[in-house]
Amino acid sequence: MKFLLVFDFDHTIIDENSDTWIVKCAPERKLPNGLKNSYQPGHWTEYMGRVFVYLGDNGVKEDEMKRTMTTIPFTAGMIDLLGFIGENKELFDCIIVSDSNTVFIDWILKAADFHKVFDEVFTNPAAFSSTGYLTVQHFHAHHCAKCPKNLCKRKVLKEFLDKQLERGVSYTQIIYIGDGGNDLCPVMFLKKNDIAMPRQGYTLEKRISQLAQSLSPVQCSVLVWSSAVDIMSYLKLLIKE
What we know:
By secondary structure, the protein is of the alpha/beta class. Helix content is 39%, strand content 16%. A six-stranded parallel β-sheet has the order 3-2-1-6-7-8. Strands 4-5 form a two-stranded antiparallel sheet. Helix 5 (78-87) runs parallel beside helix 10 (228-240). The protein starts with a strand and ends with a helix. Pfam families: Put_Phosphatase.
């Protein structure tokens, strides 16, 4: 009996958007309007690339970025939840699928000593160039019309499950924990026995209830959470069963 926990990162594990939090490093903690207005829907990664160039041009160094990122608060109850999962790793495989980047997630998880809780992190690859600028790339290419150009979370989840099956690992239940519009695609991939856990008041919850109203509900069960303690309560029930 093994369960797979799939976490989004921004506004799910942490209570902020890591990409917008980095703006605290910018001069006067803000971006010039021209840069802010250069974002085009579906092309967030490219936009962040320009933000990182701006920060680099203004002399913002890696250590300052790291200090800033590790001050992001975790979502209410999340530290307890991750501690609980860490204590029960024999029952839970745990992955992150996020539109953030490897550098930010790595910094934040390691600073809080949670990196061992997660078996794999799927997110946009990032690295510092020889000139000290942070660069970010697309996670993969895909053909899903519903998702941003750089990342289809359904594709990531499906490929992970296929790879696990090849290793002889299958899951009693998949529990998907997220908040955003780009979490809907993988939630629609979940089966009847699985659970989607959208964060209360966020886009994913709204999208799921819109689908139910238009009589094309998701196949899986839906359990809304507002604190990660709600998620932990559910997991404790699972283990008791």
